Model the fold of this input.
Amino acid sequence: MINRRDFLRASGLWVSSVGLGSAHREARRAAAGAKPGLRRSDIRILDVQHDFEDHKYRAPYQFGGRTVDHVTLLNVNVRVANASGKEALGFGSMPLGNAWAFLSQVVTYDQSLEAMKQLAGEIRSVTAGYDRAAHPIDINWELEPEYVKAAVEVSRRMQLAEPIPVLCTQVTASPFDAALHDAFGKANGINCYFGYGPKHMARDLAHYLGREFRGEFLDRYVFKKPAPAMFLYHSVGASDPITESDIKQRIGDGLPETLGEWIEADEITHIKIKLNGADLKDDVNRVVSIERAAAEAQRRRGVKQWKYCCDFNERCKDVGYLMSFLAEIKKLAPEVLTRLQYIEQPTARDLKANLNNVMHEAARIVPVVIDESLVDLESFHLSRRLGYSGVALKVCKGQTQALLIAAAAQKYKSFLCVQDLTCPGASLVHSAGLAAHIPGVFTIEANSRQYVPSANEKWREKFPSIFKIKNGQLGTARLTGPGLGVV
Done:
């Protein structure tokens, strides 16, 4: 089994811990010397199965210069048994968001999707071959390097012009990780968020995050019971109609189509603006237009307070573009800055290759969060060095990673938010559950209702408060069932 350092070096993603503090070095030392005892709640994998599910979008979604109009879901079932012999079946689901996770100019959409499908088969085999009893976080911690090796092999076998990125590997592995956490909770008769303390975990957080976390467990950084509701961040894609004049031909399926219609239908108070980062004037004008439309819709509702976030999906050529954008917004629509909660990943995801893109000045104006760049603890620490003041948690990178990064972010007082990958159905329920259990998170992006509502159909009746928005919120109070509370 290769270790993470060897992989990161081989793939060009290694960031030296020099200057990043001692957390990484201490985590490695702790991992090398740890000999934890078994817990009765530890699970052993008995069987792993997966399948795919395809859905067309009701309308194309444009972000970061890319447009998607369909989705393939990866569904995973994992059967486990705990030390008492209690068996349970865990379930996980996630969109294979290759347009986001496998960004490439030389690998086509169809090639990257096929690569993820083949990788899913390899990850199934690797996961099924894990023959020890352990907590799901330890299972994922040990298997992730093997997943990466599998990605290298798939890239070689398919003769891809670019290898499968780490982010893409994490997205493909995430429903397997989710299914393990789900099965763990069900086998032990608990919601999985009750299973992150010393009673169920053999190792403290120092094993994963460094000596500053010695004696601490994840239960210190998660709520056992979910918050009752999360504000919804409604997404406005880069090509979505803002007003009636933007619509060439109505879809006519009974759902809202303009921004104003969505605001009134779902009583929206939080709006996520997707920007292309290619033309400053266009980006600024789009924000001004959205503010004008939002203000009119909120005036009709008698609402005076609403919020924005802006997501460039790493398309700004440099931090100078971002600063110019903020300066123009301040000049043309200063009220937007008072409503702006955060900026998401403005510049390129390869932080090491763009060390000049420091965010300190921008972060003094508004929190700047890392998203595509965030693949491990090293990238988190590097982002902090570069001035990023927050992180976007996503279950599509794995329940395990989301929890560990959430703990690190809270320790270092980073801004926290939860985003999705146009997650429908079970993956949205999973994402909402994560958001509702992390202190400091009050909002969640959930845009499958806009773009791929067909994938939500079989989940609406079971989780009506998740899939029917009221008062601009998702109701999360009932996500207390066994496992992830999904099924």
Notes: The chain has two domains: 39-190, 220-475. Residues 368 and 389 are 5 Å apart (CA to CA). The chain has 18 helices and twelve strands.
